[in-house]
Amino acid sequence: MIWRTAQRLHAALAGRDVTAWDLRWPSLATTDLRGHQVVEVVSAGKHLLCRLVRGAERHTLHSHLRMEGSWHVHAADRPWRGGAARSDSGIRAVVGNDTWTAVGHRLGMLDLVPTSAEATLVGHLGPDVFGATWDPTTVGERIRARPDRAIGEALLDQTVLAGVGTFYMSEVLFLRGISPWTPAGDLSTSAIDGMVDLVSRVMNANRDRAVQITTGDSREGRTNHVHARSGRPCRRCGGTVRVAMIGPAPRNRTAFYCPSCQPGPHPTDSGAPQAPLGARRQPARRR
User: Which of 112, 115, 163, 266 has the smallest number of CB atoms closer than 10 Å to its CB?
Assistant: First the structure.
């Protein structure tokens, strides 16, 4: 979770002077902010903002993990371990001090801007579930503003609300019994407001957890209802959990759902049999 990554980076970097700085990004390779002090590291939706200061200078190092990126924190006097150590070619950023070194691995975005220009990078975001700007009323209004849009697509739109990914979209809609492809205009105001409230409550309940739990059961393999469980039995009705794409290509995403527990439109699901996610395909029999 991005919020937890921000907390980890903040604990390692904030309040300390930068002694190591290496941005392996073509447009930023010649920058050098050694001697600056990290003020804080915060999350904004799925974005990370590392704010630095030196005298009158204020800079923000912005990163986005996309699907494959990660940040790893290492003791400054020890070899790097984890994702950043697997392949030197995957390292995109190194920011360190005398105690800790933060290594950005396979980052999807990396920018360095004056802190006053942060809005050019994250100003488009809707209210952040974990931020001081969280405003469920505004989120509900933005969802209702496009009544023909699928509710699952609306929840994934970072300009509507920031921080929700396919995991929470799929899980919250299952808990509410709503098909991800249901047009927002088909839902009552109270249904939308209740769903937005549930998004906030479920995400905040998981904010400090390494493993996200939506079932109330922390045992391995029983932590969530539908996400990444296509082809497996629904925990509620015993039917088969399915997966299909939602949203316009090429920005479409996966939506996991149970057709029985979430009746309604499923326009991008062909209905073809689906093996459990990750199951190996059996070779075709010779005739």
Answer: 115
**232 occurs within a structural domain:** yes
CA–CA separation, 52 vs 33, rounded Å? 8
Range of 166's domain? 136-257
Residue 275 lies in a domain: no
Question: Three-class SS of residue 183?
Answer: strand
Residue 224 to residues 4, 69, 125, 196, Cα–Cα distance (Å): 19, 23, 27, 19
Residue 110 and residue 11 share a domain: yes
Q: Is the pTM of this model over 0.70?
A: yes
> Is 107 in the same domain as 140?
no
Please indicate, yes or no, if residue 263 is contained in any of the structural domains.
no
Structural domains in the chain (count) = 2
Q: Name the amino acid, one letter, at 39.
A: V
CA atoms within 13 A on the CB side of 175: 21
CA 106 from centre of chain = 15
Q: How far is CA 67 from the centre of its chain?
A: 9
The answer to the question of residue 179 being in a domain is yes
